[in-house]
Specification:
Blueprint lengths: L4 H11 L13 H7 L5 H15 L17 H13 L4 H12 L10
Helix pairs in contact: 4-5
C-alpha cells in the first residue's frame, strides 16, 4: 500500500515528535562509535529511556505507567510541605495524587 507524501506528512505532524541529539566528536566519541554498531538506534534509545524512567517510579507506585511531570517552581514549597506532612517525598505525593485523580494511569498488565 503506497502512501502519499502529503498524507504521511499530515500523520507525522499529528502523531509524532522529533527529537535531536547533538554529540561532540571528541567528548562523546565512545557513544558515537557504539551507536554506529547499533542497527535500531531509535529502539535502543527508547528502551534505555524507559528503563531509566522505570527506576524513577516511587516505590509506593510500582504499577504505574510513567508520566513525566513538570512542576512550576512557585508550587514546589507547597508540595514539599504537603509531602512532609504526609511522610512522603514530592514524587510519591504527585504519584498518589495522580493515581487518585486519574485511575487510568495504573497499568495492572505491565510486566
Amino acid at each position: 500500500m503506497a502512501y502519499s507524501k502529503k498524507a504521511q506528512a499530515r500523520y507525522d505532524n499529528t502523531n509524532t515528535t522529533g527529537l535531536y541529539l547533538k554529540l561532540n566528536n571528541k567528548t562523546d566519541s565512545d557513544i558515537i562509535a557504539y551507536m554506529k554498531t547499533v542497527d535500531n538506534k531509535q529502539g535502543l534509545v527508547k528502551q534505555l529511556i524507559r528503563e531509566y524512567m522505570a527506576k524513577s517510579v516511587p516505590v509506593s507506585a510500582p504499577d504505574c505507567t510513567i508520566v513525566p511531570v513538570s512542576v512550576p517552581d512557585k508550587y514546589m514549597d507547597d508540595l514539599r510541605k504537603e509531602a512532609k506532612e504526609n511522610l512522603m517525598t514530592v514524587p510519591e505525593l504527585l504519584w498518589s495524587t495522580a493515581i487518585g485523580d486519574m485511575p487510568w494511569l495504573v497499568n495492572k498488565h505491565r510486566t
